[in-house]
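Ticket reopened. Same input as before:
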Amino acid sequence: MTSSVITGIGVVAPNGLGTEEYWGAALAGTSGIGPVGRFDASGYPARLSGEVPGFAAEEHLPSRLLPQTDHMTRLALVAADWALRDAGVDGETFPALDMGVVTAASAGGFEFGQRELERLWGQGNEYVSAYQSFAWFYAVNTGQISIRNGMKGPSGVLVNDQAGGLDAIAQARRQLRRGSKLIITGGVDGSICPWGWIGHIASGQLSTSEDPATAYLPFDSRAAGHVTGEGGAILIMEDAAAARARGASHVYGEIAGYAATFDPRAGRGREPGLRRAIEIALADAGAAAGDVDVVFADAAGLPEPDRAEAAAIAAVFGPGSVPVTAPKTMTGRLHAGGAAVDVATALLAIRDGIVPPTVNVRPAPDYPIELVTGGPLRLPVRVAVVIARGLGGFNSVLVVRAPGEATDNANEIKGAIHAA
Amino acid sequence: MSRRVAIVGVGVVAPGAIGTKEFWSMLTEGRTATRKITFFDPSRFRSRVAAEIDFDPAANGLTPQEIRRMDRGVQLAVVAAREAMADADLALAVTDPTRVGVTIGTAVGATMGLDQEYNVVSDSGRLHLVDHEYAVPHLYDYLVPTSFAREVAWAAGAEGPTAVVSTGCTSGLDSVAHAVDLIREGSADVMVAGASDAPISPITLACFDAIKATTPRNDDPEHASRPFDANRAGFVLGEGSAIFILEELGHAQARGARIYAEIAGFGSRCNAFHMTGLRPDGAEMAEAITAALTEARLDVSAVDYINAHGSGTRQNDRHETAAFKLSLGHRAYEVPVSSIKSMIGHSLGAIGSIEIAASVLAIQNNVVPPTANLDSPDPECDLDYVPKVAREQRVDTVLSVGSGFGGFQSAMVLRRADGRAA
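Engineering reply: fixed in the latest deploy. New output:
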């Protein structure tokens, strides 16, 4: 089996525009959560968000792209540009048909969509933009990235809420295994406009706090919802042999394992699917629970899902046996973009041997996990697990491994678990 | 790949036909379900025709709470999924719900719900700061359309990998292909896979009006969808859902399941050209077709029927005609090609799955459905498009293709399962 490695990263996050800006902020514990700035949210029960600072699309993108793109697509195009630059590749590196794009989406270009709905209902159908047909739909980021970079290979779009970011990366890995040489993957998202906002409010998951330091407190007894944000990460995934052959300057790590499960409907008396997803992903990676150095939690920020996640982590790794962190406490939940940022963060933790903290949280003693709080944790990271859940029961788990860390007994372990 | 994938159950909710049997009768009789829009007053729009479903959710088994919380697109999917499960006798197959997954394609998700709710919370566009107190409780399901997969997973009791696939108008092919991948790689043994879209709403009409993609032929709605006809003028918007039960072939054979067809190959490419435009040479669709045939280990001579994208825009019809010639060579002139969009319109992300349903029914019945309304062939579209009348012939292998906004091009090969024809 070929191995799929990440050779480029582009992050656009509420606490940092650009990968190193984000990484510096994450290690310093600097949060990007603050009052909503993209519109007047004072009349709504949730008034905090995580917004990408200092982003001026016209500095990065040709003017012809601006009228046809939503804010989140502009962020995605720029993150893709940066990831490609980081990897030292472009649309010419491999034949166009050997390169593709697989991204996650959640709400599509919703701010653009609100403006056109306003025109439709307020002025009349003939005022709706010719770009609405594709600026809003879920496939927009994949389509635009493919066009901008001339990539014609198998591509895709997954819409599984926060879990989708991992599902897209896993789908990218499938395309490499099928013969593609390079896939642009990950997710960038954002629906911080009044119309998107009331949708998020309706989820019942948003914090109503006005204090950025206490609004999003996963695994804390004060947990009362999350803050929603915008941004995400784009990753360049390559077949390891192809990357070596072209002389890739660096490899961040390998996408070593993955699994997705779906929770049984409440009241069926069956165990939720997260523990199983972690176990299958580890088996897929040929890793044992003891090989895992750190877990990036989904961190819903509400008592019930926090408890379920802590229980699943403890069931697989043992109570308090592995450091668990949620750097998304500094960005808010970014939906289709969030899991990709966590994967980027895990890769940077592998690179630098340091794990960013979970900020503001005082871990509740009854959760059987060891949360990284207070400051970053210096730790050699060879294997990291990233967990993401989508509202409604979606569980996805990705295992990221340091370059060249494939275990010799991988197949043996996989065989044993499948047999069991 | 040692694991192979069979279709063992089919469910269809389409314009003019709720249920697979009725759907097939309609297609083979060449009946059309396009009409003047009745869901709202279309008089201000350029294109005022659509293929609507006369769908009564309660009569189709949905409970009051299901009806309340599901967008119309989700309702269509759940009804189609239940038909497919009953058809496959899924309960017999399910020994372990963790080995059953779900993939549902949709291009525009809960657009009808979004459009209607926006009108209320904005007080018809008056309020930019929309009023959250008027929002329906399940508005988040409209914002992020994961409920398409969630509700089907609940209906099936599935606990395996579950996903919404949204690649515009190829979603219906890509969703099923994704499910095939999950079975082949061993992540699931059974998948409930398909697609649904219910886009007939003012915002969708306005979008397509703005780029003149839909037909302005409003005077004769029953004959408005005219793929490959010289007098075509754009596509006719539709709605619908088709859902399949896919099963690992050995698993299906072991329980003596009826097998409609094997999904033998799939390919997809992007044109990297334009979000809505197509290059006339059809090169990327041709690449997708070749990839699908290669995966199926079939020569072009094996193709008995092509279920075309056939949207009825001039751009598409010429694009795919070129793609068939490029990928199949002289065989393109021998194989019957037809577009069921001539009868049931273009239901965006759903249509790819509905066309898979038509393809497997063609195999099951050895009948090629026609292209309705093909009175005056476009001289630039010079293949055999099966005008107006269904054709009885041996059909063992079908190529079904799709093309969509974003540049996506997909192709799937469906084949009669060896010795176990349905």
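The first strand of chain A starts at residue 4 and ends at 13. Residues 71-87 of chain A form the longest helix (17 residues). Please confirm and we'll close it.
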